[in-house]
Amino acid sequence: MASNRRCRRYAAANNKGGVGKSTLICRLAEELAARGHRVLVGDGDPQGNVSRMLGHNEEALLQRPTINEVVLAARPGCAADAILPCAWDQLDDMPNEVYELAQRIDLLPARFDYELRLGEAAGHEPGSAMARHARQRLAVALSGGVLDEYDFFLMDLPPSIGPLTHMGLDAISDVEDEEEAGGVIIPLYPDYDPISGAVRMRDLVTAGARDWERPFLRTAGVVINRFDPHRKKSQERDYLPFAKDTFAGQLIGPVFHERAPIAEVGSLGYPLRSQPNWRIRDNVKEFGQVVEVMEKGRVAA
Question: N or C: which end of the chain has fewer CB within 10 A?
Fold first, then answer.
């Protein structure tokens, strides 16, 4: 039976690494699933952090297709061959809610060798038909009904403004109308390099919408992440107002404070809801504020 779902597409991206992109994608997928949505998470970073956080480590992925093979083939619908279920239901002694969440999340995984696909994604004259074909390889692989069974497609992109990121941005903007349009969520923490990386990513998104003729490629919002008001490093506190001014009108959600539960579950590959409620209720509320924006499809000004 054909699905009536319209899959809204988002990516997390920043030219600076270590800003919490992978963590943000996994926690947003968890929150969306907790609200009853079906979610496909695409791991577009050769580091494979999202794959690990959803229960699939690199060793387990060595003998099966991943986004690497999908982009290499670039046939309509071939991404379906690489999709795996979230493996949180394989964890021991989890609350029942965790097993239910796992049934609503699938993964298009990545391995370290995805970086080898730079050859397919680049090396062509900008603006040429070959460059456009290369950039659209992932979008083609996701076409043909792959996303029809999902409400949301969330993609983690590498800390780069290069070809692999271009492919991911093109894939999340390959939509027909506002019902499917999401955008790019740019996480940062308040310091010079993450803010500069966020500005570069925002500029790439703007240029890509124009140069690639992708009218629904846009910045959906900026998330300020990993802020610790008690840290002695006063520079971070000084950069918080600078970040707010730089992205005025584009901020979504609260300022995320650095909290132990988020770091712990990310390193273990556990969902946030594996923790007792008293430890995570503030985190759940914060991620929920971002998800509410995503559900509405509202784009930051």
Answer: N
